[in-house]
Design brief:
The complex is a heterotrimer. By secondary structure, chain A is of the alpha/beta class. Chain A is built from 13 helices and 18 strands. Chain A has helices at residues 9-19, 34-45, 59-72, 82-87, 89-98, 122-125, 140-157, 182-188, 226-255, 280-294, 312-318, 339-350, 371-383; strands at residues 3-7, 24-26, 52-54, 76-80, 103-108, 133-136, 161-166, 175-179, 205-206, 215-216, 222-223, 263-266, 273-277, 299-304, 306-308, 324-329, 356-361, 388-390. In chain A, the strands form four sheets. Chain A has a seven-stranded mixed sheet, sandwiched between helices. A six-stranded mixed sheet of chain A has the order 12-14-13-16-17-18, with helices on both faces. A two-stranded antiparallel sheet of chain A has the order 1-8. Chain A is globular and about 65 Å long. Chain B has twelve helices and nine strands. In chain B, strand 6 (177-181), helix 7 (186-197) and strand 7 (203-208) form a beta-alpha-beta unit. Chain C is built from three helices and three strands; from the N terminus they run αββααβ. Chain C has helices spanning 2-9, 46-50, 74-78; strands at residues 12-15, 30-33, 84-87. A two-stranded antiparallel sheet of chain C has the order 2-3. The longest helix of chain C is centred in the first third of the chain and has 8 residues, at 2-9. Chain C starts with a helix and ends with a strand. Classes of the chains: A alpha/beta, B alpha/beta, C alpha+beta. Chain A binds chain B through residues 23-24, 26, 51-52, 54-58, 60-62, 64-74, 76, 90-91, 94, 194, 197-199, 203-211, 215-218, 223, and chain B through 40, 44, 46, 53-54, 56-62, 64-72, 74-75, 77-83, 85-90, 92, 95, 112-113, 115-116, 119-120. Strand 9 (205-206) of chain A pairs antiparallel with strand 1 (12-15) of chain C. Bound molecules: thiamine diphosphate and iron/sulfur cluster (3 copies). One iron/sulfur cluster (SF4) binds next to helix 3 of chain C.
């Protein structure tokens, strides 16, 4: 009998970490991530989860300590939101450069100033170029499943993974979630190979100063320069596209559920007008697509699950017959468009595809996004001139 | 038992020759003897951006026979906490974790992470090698620079403030072991690192490490300069265990025989004090005397 | 396996002498030991103790590794028998 519980995405995230038998947790509370840190603390204090828990004094320290624990060879977890994630920024680069399989939950929240505790995705989008894998979830079940997959991916490609889900909309809202049996998780995710750590491999100086040009090592083998070692991260991140797809396939084989790998598609078989989004907003988009279809427009939805590495090939393939592509996203690259729209346009251009691409910024700082609005905006985008902009602005003349 | 002679120190060198540090570097000498007191095969070192990074060499070679992780400037004690937690998780608590940071990485940017680690009672040793400035970036002022020192960010007026009393901040965390040391008293330094190694909980060591280019004195005078820091009383050698302070080594002798060297003697041989005025010397002397009295009182109280 | 992964994707240095090259090329003063003055009998080893770079042997007759001595003059300054002189 399946173990189905009515829980929030935060509870699902903490449960996932427990199922993955994480060995070191370090976290610092911030709304809306806080319940994750509290749940894990309770699990660890009660002995339900055998793990070290570091109640660090900041997010910078949270990430610094899980990176170091991971370097020693322990499986680690942390979670944060908004300004907490921004405070980690230096360490996010350090984690990716260190090639440690750290998994972090990012409970998406808008960033100050001014303060907001409500949801958008500016926090994780602002970390786009740190070298992390970023996966966006649409619902609580996907959060639980994706965190389990994240360890599988991270430990295979040695790149940290950020699992993103929307604050409050998912983090504090209860839905039925199937909690997989521990045995199955153990089968899917074997214990971390302790040898990946720095213990017992002889004396080493990890992440030293590096030159721009290659240099001979003590055995007279030529070692790369800074740019070369950074290219390796980039190259491995590109290769991780396969690993992300594979991890989802293998997950499906064991647990009977998959999440589309890199992108999730809805009504795409014959879609001419595609709404593209990330996270819970993509679920809203399905309601809009249904409505557009009832108005005679063949609409479909793509949820970008893997934002980094960017699934350009998968998107181009899925969008090859699209006439309009309307991107709704809860972030913006200030002074230009939404980040997802920008990346998507570039991918389509490279693939020689020329649909009309419309970019809409929506729902910043918790502003409610209603399906009718998405429907109206998308219909305008499809039927009228190319469109860009911020939807549902109020109170500014 | 205190180590009495050079020949009692371990023979093995853990810093291979041909390193990148300056000639006559007080940090080098400190690290050289500290590693002898540790068991490098069973030690993990965490090092932030600093002269220590440079000492540890440019990829893919290091002169140092110890496993070291480099960490961002502010993160040293947090990284060390992670090492400690990771070792516990993988059941390798036979390793000692040692953080080794400069005064900038300790007094300034790293103080938050350090306070957090100490407050949590992290089972590690933190060594601050204090060269009284941001030397790696070219001798800028830190909160550990002494008053009246010219630095590259106090180039004209010299530093107006006294050195931060970091050890008091550390002491406020009520950790089991705190000690100060000097590379000019290597046996005392060695003993303190060895003592700290075998204590559980957070241990903090602060070593005043003279820096010839940063302070402006001739290379050959490294040892003399370090001795002078202690003899004039601006640096005091002691241990604090469970709140009890005990003077050690040369400072203990001075407590019995009295101090003869003055701040005027101390500042004379250093170009960083080239602009020091009579008033500033007096102020520094007063600051030094006041602290010395406090240490004496605490020492005598036992 | 683990080692191979480590060495190919991570920046990890391994220990070796001469990381920064030989000092013989730039050193302006060189320490010379007078073995008549320092015979090894009751010798103090202060030079060994205080050499920041650890390039003085601990066995007598003392030897200085001139490939890597930085010529700082600390040993000469600290020798109580004036057995070490710095020569240009
Ligand atoms: C976040 C950050 N800010 C600034 C720097 C630049 N930086 C590198 S080392 C250093 C000074 C280090 O001073 P200290 O800790 O006293 O060590 P020292 O160089 O004197 O050995 C500075 C400012 C940095 N690496 N990271
Ligand atoms: S600048 Fe000072 S502390 Fe840094 S390596 Fe040179 S002598 Fe040592
Ligand atoms: S310091 Fe001088 S006397 Fe002492 S061992 Fe060295 S050379 Fe000999
Ligand atoms: S000159 Fe300096 S580096 Fe050379 S042996 Fe003497 S103390 Fe060591």
């Amino acid at each position: 009998m399946a173990d189905v519980r009515i829980i929030t995405a935060n509870e699902a995230a903490a449960l996932a970490a427990k199922l993955c038998k994480v060995q070191v947790v370090a976290a610092y509370p911030i709304t809306p991530q806080t319940p994750v840190t509290e749940d894990l603390a309770a699990m660890i204090e009660s002995g339900e989860l055998k793990s070290e828990y570091l109640t660090v004094e900041s997010e910078h320290s949270a990430m610094a300590s899980v990176v170091a624990a991971s370097q020693v060879g322990a499986r680690v977890f942390t979670a944060t939101s908004a300004n907490g994630l921004l405070y980690m920024h230096e360490m996010l680069h350090w984690a990716a450069g260190s090639r440690v399989p750290v998994v972090t939950a990012c409970v998406n929240r808008g960033v100050g100033a001014p303060w907001t505790i409500l949801n958008d995705q500016q926090d994780s989008i602002a970390q786009r170029d740190t070298g992390w894998i970023q996966l966006y979830c649409r619902n609580s079940q996907e959060v639980l499943d994706t965190i389990i997959q994240a360890y599988r991916i991270a430990e295979q490609v040695l790149i940290p993974v950020m699992v993103c889900y929307d604050g409050f909309i998912l983090s504090h809202t209860s839905y039925p979630v199937e909690v997989p049996p521990q045995d199955d998780v153990d089968r899917y995710l074997p214990p971390l190979d302790g040898n990946l750590g720095i213990i017992g491999g002889g004396y080493m100086n990890v992440n030293p100063l590096i030159l721009s040009e290659p240099r001979l090592d003590p055995n007279s083998d030529l070692r790369p320069g800074y740019m070369d070692i950074r290219y390796r991260l980039h190259e491995d991140l590109r290769k991780a596209l396969d690993a992300i797809g594979q991890a989802d396939k293998e997950f499906e084989a064991i647990f009977g559920r998959g999440w589309g790998g890199l992108i999730w598609e809805y009504g795409m078989v014959d879609a001419e007008h595609v709404l593209v989004s990330m996270g819970s907003l993509a679920s809203e988009c399905t309601l809009a697509a249904d409505e557009l279809r009832s108005q005679g427009l063949r609409a479909g939805v793509i949820a970008v699950r893997a934002y980094r590495p960017f699934p350009d090939a998968a998107l181009s393939r899925a969008l090859r017959k699209a006439k309009t592509v309307t991107v709704f996203e809860k972030d913006v690259s200030y002074g230009y468009l939404g980040a997802l729209a920008t990346d998507l346009r570039s991918a389509l251009f490279d693939a020689g595809l020329t649909p009309k691409v419309c970019s809409f910024v929506a729902g910043l700082g918790g502003r409610d996004v209603r399906p009718e609005q998405l429907t109206r905006t998308a219909a305008d985008a499809i039927l009228k001139q190319p469109a860009l902009g911020w939807i549902d602005l109020k109170g500014i003349a | 038992m205190a180590t009495r002679a050079a020949r009692d120190l371990p023979t093995e060198e853990f810093i291979l020759p041909g390193s990148r540090s300056c000639a006559a570097c007080g940090l080098m000498l400190t690290y050289r003897h500290a590693l002898k007191a540790l068991d490098p095969g069973k030690t993990l070192v965490a090092v932030p951006a600093s002269c220590m990074t440079v000492l540890h060499g440019v990829y893919p070679i290091t002169p140092v026979k110890v496993t070291c992780i480099n960490t961002p400037f502010a993160a040293t004690a947090a990284s060390a906490s992670g090492l400690v937690a990771g070792l516990k998780a993988i059941k390798r608590e036979d390793y000692t974790v040692v953080a080794f940071a400069g005064d900038g990485g300790t007094y300034d940017i790293g103080i938050q992470a350090l306070s957090g680690a100490l407050e949590r009672g992290t089972n590690f040793m933190y060594v601050c090698y204090d060269n009284e400035g941001y030397m790696n970036t070219g001798t800028q002022r830190s909160s550990a620079s002494p008053a009246a020192a010219v630095t590259s960010t106090t180039p004209i007026l010299a530093k107006a403030q006294h050195k931060k009393d970091m050890i008091r901040i550390v002491e406020a965390h009520r950790i089991p072991y705190i000690a100060t040391a000097s590379p000019s008293f290597p046996l005392d330094l060695f003993d303190k690192v060895k003592t700290a190694k075998d204590i559980r909980g957070s241990r903090y060591l602060e070593v005043l490490a003279p820096c010839p280019p940063g302070w402006g004195f001739p290379n050959k005078d490294l040892i003399k300069m370090g001795k002078l820091t202690v003899e004039c009383g601006i640096h005091v050698l002691y241990e604090i265990r469970e709140g009890r302070l005990r003077l050690t080594s040369r400072s203990l002798v001075l407590a019995e025989k009295g101090r003869k060297k003055t701040i005027a003697d101390y500042v004379k041989g250093q170009t960083r004090f080239k602009k020091i005025s009579k008033d500033q010397i007096d102020a520094l002397q007063q600051w030094t005397d006041q602290r010395w009295e406090e240490f004496l009182q605490r020492h005598n109280r036992g | 396996m683990a080692d191979k992964i480590r060495e190919t994707v991570m920046a990890i240095s391994r220990p070796a002498p001469g990381e920064a090259g030989r000092t013989g090329d730039w050193r302006s003063y060189t320490p010379v030991i007078d073995h008549e003055k320092c015979t090894g009998k009751d010798s103090c080893l202060y030079c060994w103790l205080y050499c920041p770079d650890g390039v003085i042997s601990r066995e007598f007759p003392l030897e200085i590794d001139l490939e890597y001595c930085k010529g700082c003059g600390v040993c000469a300054e600290e020798c109580p028998r004036k057995a070490i002189t710095m020569v240009e």
